[in-house]
Amino acid sequence: MSSAFYILFFPLWIQVLVCRNYMGNMDMNEIDHFMPILMKREEEAEMTPMVSHGSSHFLWIKHSNLYLVAMTKKNANAALVFSFLYKIIQVFKEYFKELEEESIRDNFVTVYELMDEVMDFGFPQTTDSKILQEYITQQGHKLEVGAPRPPATVTNAVSWRSEGIKYRKNEVFMDVIESVNLLVSANGSVLRSEIVGTIKLKVVLSGMPELRLGLNDKVLFEITGREKSKTVELEDVKFHQCVRLSRFENDRTISFIPPDGESELMSYRLNTTVKPLIWIESVIEKFSHSRVEIKVKARSQFKSRSTANNVSILVPVPSDADSPKFKTSNGSTKWVPEKNVVQWNIKSFPGGKEYMMRAHFGLPSVESEELEAKRPITVNFEIPYFTVSGIQVRYLKIIEKSGYQALPWVRYITQSGAHTE
């Protein structure tokens, strides 16, 4: 996949901090051509995530003050290469907290050990930081007397979970989080809408427990005798490696031995029409280029038993506006001149309610109004105990051979994604 890997630091001139030639078929000085090509592309406004010099191809990403570069001479899978680059950033951050030039220089030995473990002969291997931490530690350790004992993950069929884990209180916390991406036109038509969901776990369980999860989802369970019942059709479903896919294919049961601590069990997407959970209407009036008045009405379009928290409505204003005056029926308002927006904050917004905000600005100069009129209103919010898709956890069973009692906790959250009107 990748013949060589570099981490570059570029303050005033290019500095190669670390490099590894995995396949031995690359001239390591070839990297000297990378930055001049990149700078030329930047000057010509033709930046691309891959640049080439002769038969050498550089796939790169920038993080903080570093460039991470994978180099290859073959027709590699670019998506796989970039996935690896972002994954190696996560691994380094797990070890060093912050990935920057100083942390690389302070941990050269650990960095090279990690580079040798995560890739073998140009192909990604182990990129799970919890597994890597069993092999590679930053702290010194004493050798045990007797025969050397390999890490648990070497002999364990469940590589993502170590044996012998013990807790005094056994619990598992599950968060079902949905983000609503919505784009609404000026006349109120929904131009684009989708729901992006994730199910996250925090596992505090002893031993090697098996968990079984049941959802009210048409993709996961066959619906019989209830044609009119509401179902949820999920797309782009992705599971953590712990899920037994063969069992899922056979009977749609999500069965797994979970990693210890926090992890993402699955993600999904619903490409469906969604009405705005918080509907926004706005009227902008300009008076002879001397002042502008903005009226915004916000209405929650979900049931009264739910409440949206930390609602933030960003309303664009002309770039030359000044002397703001505000009046609201609920919440607080402030002017953010560096972003040319009015920020209307409502701490608690119950379902079925409607609030108003009115703003007055002076206009000391005359500028083009066309560009200002096209800027959208952005809405941010979070609704606990609610999923817009209606997906629910029907059961979460915990099975462990010792038979201990464990408490499962499930929480639902709907939040705004890219929500503009």
UniProtKB/TrEMBL annotation:
It comes from the Eukaryota. Belongs to the adaptor complexes medium subunit family. This is Adaptor related protein complex 1 subunit mu 3. The keyword DNA damage does not apply. GO terms for cellular component: clathrin adaptor complex; clathrin-coated vesicle membrane; trans-Golgi network. Residues 1-19 form the signal peptide. Subunit of clathrin-associated adaptor protein complex 1 that plays a role in protein sorting in the trans-Golgi network (TGN) and endosomes. The AP complexes mediate the recruitment of clathrin to membranes and the recognition of sorting signals within the cytosolic tails of transmembrane cargo molecules. The lineage of its organism: Eukaryota, Metazoa, Chordata, Craniata, Vertebrata. Gene3D superfamilies: 3.30.450.60, Mu homology domain, subdomain B. Keywords: Cytoplasmic vesicle, Golgi apparatus, Membrane, Phosphoprotein, Protein transport, Signal, Transport. InterPro entries: Adaptor_comp_med_subunit, AP2_Mu_C_sf, AP_mu_sigma_su, Clathrin_mu, Clathrin_mu_CS, Longin-like_dom_sf, MHD. It is found in: Cytoplasmic vesicle, Clathrin-coated vesicle membrane; Golgi apparatus. Its main location: membrane. Residues 169-421 form the MHD domain. It is a peripheral membrane protein. The gene is ap1m3. It comes from Dicentrarchus labrax.
